[in-house]
What we know:
By secondary structure, this protein is an alpha+beta fold. Helices cover 31% and strands 27% of the residues. It has five helices and nine strands; from the N terminus they run αβββαβββββααβα. The protein has helices at 9-30, 60-66, 113-116, 120-123, 148-159, and strands spanning 39-40, 45-50, 53-58, 69-73, 80-81, 86-92, 96-100, 105-110, 132-135. The strands form two sheets. The chain has a six-stranded antiparallel beta sheet with strand order 1-2-3-9-8-5. A three-stranded antiparallel beta sheet has the order 4-6-7.
Amino acid sequence: MAHLDYPGPDFAINNQISTLSLKMDFFLKHEVCFILARKFTDKHEWISVENGIGTVGISNFAQEALGDVVYCSLPEIGTKLNKQDEFGALESVKAASELYSPLTGEVTEINTALADNPGLVNKSCYEDGWLIKMTVDNPSELNELMNEDAYEKYIKSIED
Length: 160
């Protein structure tokens, strides 16, 4: 039976650096899309942007406050929105709530699954329960929205 020497910790570190370097090279050469972290409005909408298209939904805080969503009113594809424009509404068993655009842009897609299953907003508000997708006409408007930490602090401030 042959005895193999352990190459030592330097080998492992050099191997990790080579792997990281190859991965970064791949991302740069293939222009892999980057996803912006989720941003929030003070009206509890969120947006995440990928390749210039924003996906919009409501926060977990908002869906919990609404209760079981039974109907979603969403805009038509092609609707042009300014930041803070009302673009639809959610109705639940205990309330109705208007929806406001977090940014300026044009609606490129609506979540058609919500027509038959509006409860997706409750079950998966950050994934399957998204509302619309839109262009991001003024990327600088993203700087005016809250990151996740700031949003959590905002929620705590309004709950007190």
